[in-house]
Amino acid sequence: MNAERRQTLIVDYGAEILGEFWLTNSMYVKMPVEDVKRYAQEQQHHYILLHPGYEEGGVWGSQDPSVARQAIGSDWLYNAQSSLNNTHECIAVIDTGVRKTHTLFNSPNRINRTVDCIYGGPSCTDTTVNPTFAWVVTAIQAALANGDRIINLSLYTNCLNQSLCDVTHAVDAAYDLGAIIFVASGNDATQGQQKAPAHSSKVLTIGAVDLLNLTHTSSYQASGPTSDGRIKPELQAPSGLYTAYNGCGGEGNWCPLNNNGTNNGFWTIDGTSISTPIVTGAAYMLKKQLISYGVASPEPGLIYSWILTLTNGLQITNTTGAGLLSLGWRQCTFMWATLSANQYIENNFAIDSSSDSYGSKRMDVVVWWPEASTQTIRNQVSLKLKSPQNVVLAQANTPQQVWRKITYVQAGNTRIPSGTYVIHIDVGTLQPSASNVRLLLTACTRPE
Fold first, then answer.
1. Residue 62: predicted pLDDT
2. Would you state the pLDDT for residue 32?
3. Rounded to an integer, what distance in angstroms lies between the CA atom of residue 194 and that of residue 276?
4. Which residue positions in the chain have pLDDT lower than 50?
């Protein structure tokens, strides 16, 4: 904000400036209510307060995190990467309620640093605060300043308008700076009212399934579409886990206010804030894997497209998104390109079934592209998969999205035949302010 506008705020509207945010080019100010209304009418600027969500407790049985790892099939990848030391970056988890002295975190030490963006200082154990947008943007800025490029936002707000939400602007800007961002879809069970920052077009929004019934969407999950018609959440992950959340010792119970917790206690907790970090952790491993493949600095959108490829759904809906995260693949191909309107590009995917001892029976193809959340008209991009005989096997061209997915299952539940398959991407009309579109593609064969 320029000096003249800052002075106008102070002199004409009685504002006290409490904070400024380089990420969103905005301010956090204290103003009399009547002056806020007058400023909004005269200057067409708005400030919106965060309304936090909540998590639900519950005891369903065997809810150790190892059950969740088994559900998404991550152990083999974690074990396979034991010798990979190509990245040492941290994951920024933005949430409330962590006991950093808990044995899960200090044996060995797994926490790089903690920052309390509400009260200041290193303690983040409080689980009862009502943070404002200003505090959340401060946390995102702190993560970026720390060098974190994988960010987990286990929170949601009451802001619906994608053009007016500071947190949405912040995550969009963080993506532009190279951040891979995952956001909880929310726990208010609403449909068609995705709120900030879950409604952002530059994040992946995560829903939740019951850990002990992976086909059942959790009843509290907020679902899409967004106000401009985009699918949300993009995918789901398990929830209802034992966690070290504030070190509570009571299984399935909320922490009593007078209970300071213990360093080895566990608590069963449920919510999209719990399912989201599962996908965030998977993204860290996939980024390491891409670097080992020779992709020196993977773009966030390439990680997004790979994650959406590794989901088990056969259809895409506003309840399940692309389905449950499932970290298993046999052969993959990756592509990134920048195209203008009315251009197309093709990628050849050579499949060798004879070398696939597991027998891949399906192929998943995803193209993802970045667009500003403030846009109301989306770029037109269509996706086709062609057989080695040039027969179209599947296609996707749903309007008003920022990604396309094709799932092809070989007829008769047999393995996909060897040959060179062609992935065809068509770019049609671009949104008015765009001269080109950045496309990030992943295709993988899978055993199921």
1. 46
2. 79
3. 16
4. 47-62, 127-130, 247, 249-254, 256-259
pLDDT at 278: 94
Q: Do the Cβ atoms of 269 and 59 come closer than 8 Å?
A: no
- Closest among 188, 228, 189, 221 to 205, alpha carbons compared: 221
At 120 the pLDDT is: 55
What's residue 267's pLDDT? Answer: 67
Rg of the chain in Å (alpha carbons):
23
Report how far apart, in Å, the C-alpha atoms of 312 and of each of 101, 166, 327, 397 are: 37, 33, 9, 20
Handedness of CA 426, 431, 436, 441 (dihedral sign): negative
287 phi, psi to nearest 5 deg:
-65, -45
Is the CB of residue 177 less than 8 Å from the CB of residue 210? Answer: no
Residue 77 near residue 327 (C-beta atoms within 8 A) = yes
Where residue 121 falls (left for φ over 0; alpha for ψ -120 to 50; beta otherwise) is: left
Which domains are delineated in the chain?
3-43 (no CATH), 56-309 (3.40.50.200), 332-446 (2.60.120.380)
Q: How far apart are the first and last CA of the chain?
A: 53
pLDDT of 156? 83
- Strands of the sheet containing 437-446, edge to edge, are 332-339, 437-446, 362-368, 403-409
Backbone angles phi, psi at 70, to 5 degrees: -65, -40
